[in-house]
Amino acid sequence: KAMKQNLKARIITGAILLSALAFAIIMGGWVFSVICILCIGIALYEMMHALRQRGHQIVRWPVWAATIASIPCFLMWQNRLLLPIAVFTCMVTTAYVLFHGEPKLEDILLSLMPFFAVSLPGMCLLAQINAPFRWLQVMLLCLSFLVPTLGDTAAYFVGSRFGKRKLIPAVSPNKTVAGAVAGLIGSTLTALIIYGLTLAFMPAADVSLMPPIWHFVIIGFVGGIAGELGDLFASLVKRHCGIKDYGNIFPGHGGMMDRLDSVLFVSVLIYLYQSLMW
């Protein structure tokens, strides 16, 4: 009975989240940007809070400052200041740990981890708003969000029903090989569906600009792998911190970081693809 209630809560919350995502993508522009920045901030806070609960003396303010400074880089300045910001953040964090209390290497590394694992990948979503065509913005954002999300959904249902052999039990005891394979298939099919819908609704004059279908096969498959790696990475952090979820704001889904873990990894892949193609 408890499992059925959890599944029901998971489905209802998932439907609400997909509706909110659709609204943000359709609105685009500053509406999507504000929502995206808010979600990144919540996920960043959740990871930092988890690490501090574990007892790590992480330095938070350089990462928050660097995250805020990175926003206009991705939105307006095409990332020209991103490398100096990242290097300066590493230097300031290292100096602060070295000159305060008893210096520990893990405090430096774990202080910087949220910036590179949450902030910068999250900013890659903002950069997709800079795509030159509206249909391209929608396509890239749908790939970033839906390839990992629907792949994860396929992995959840197939793995819970047919999964026997565990994937990496030391990191995530509930994930199975069958679920991982189903996730890759689901991610690839999702990318192909996005390809078809984009062709159906994009302006006829821009059809020649549409990438070939085999790009989407690769994006779906590699994106599925990236999404599963992101999920496993987040699970490893949770296991290290001794927590089940990063938060409880989404019934049946945990916190913001629990929802964005795979999306963040895929967003980097889609941003690199965007940079190469347009």
Gist?
By secondary structure, the chain is an all-alpha fold. The chain has helices at 2-27, 29-53, 61-75, 82-98, 105-127, 134-162, 177-201, 213-241, 256-277, and strands spanning 166-168, 172-176.
Report on the structure:
There is one protein chain. This protein is mostly helical. The chain contains nine helices and two strands. It has helices spanning 2-27, 29-53, 61-75, 82-98, 105-127, 134-162, 177-201, 213-241, 256-277; strands spanning 166-168, 172-176. It has a two-stranded antiparallel sheet with strand order 1-2. A hairpin with a 3-residue loop joins strand 1 (166-168) and strand 2. Helix 3 runs parallel beside helix 5, helix 6 packs antiparallel against helix 7 (177-201) and helix 7 (177-201) crosses helix 8 (213-241). The chain starts with a helix and ends with a helix. The mean pLDDT is 91.
Annotate the secondary structure layout.
Blueprint: H1 2-27, H2 29-53, H3 61-75, H4 82-98, H5 105-127, H6 134-162, E1 166-168, E2 172-176, H7 177-201, H8 213-241, H9 256-277
Helix pairs in contact: 1-2, 2-5, 2-9, 3-4, 3-5, 4-5, 5-9, 6-7, 6-8, 6-9, 7-8, 8-9
